[in-house]
Design brief:
Layout: E1 9-14, E2 23-28, H1 30-46
Length: 60
C-alpha cells in the first residue's frame, strides 16, 4: 500500500542475501521521518557510546 501523499521520504530496507523480495519499503511524511530521526537520536543518546557502532566487538 502506498502513502496517500504526493511526496514522501522513502526508505528501503533490504536483505540482499534473501533476494529482491526480501525488502520492506517505508514511505514517511516529513513529520513521521523527523519523529523517526528524533527517536533514533534519543535511543543512541540513552545507550552506552559505541554500542551500535560498526566497530563494535561482537561477543565481547
Amino acid at each position: 500500500m502506498h502513502a496517500p501523499y504526493a511526496h514522501t521520504v522513502n526508505i528501503d530496507i533490504l536483505n540482499p542475501a534473501l533476494g529482491p523480495s526480501a525488502r520492506v519499503a517505508l514511505e514517511l511524511t516529513e513529520e513521521s521521518a523527523l519523529a523517526l530521526a528524533n527517536a533514533i537520536h534519543a535511543a543512541l543518546a540513552a545507550a552506552p557510546a559505541g554500542i551500535a557502532s560498526v566497530n563494535q566487538k561482537v561477543g565481547a
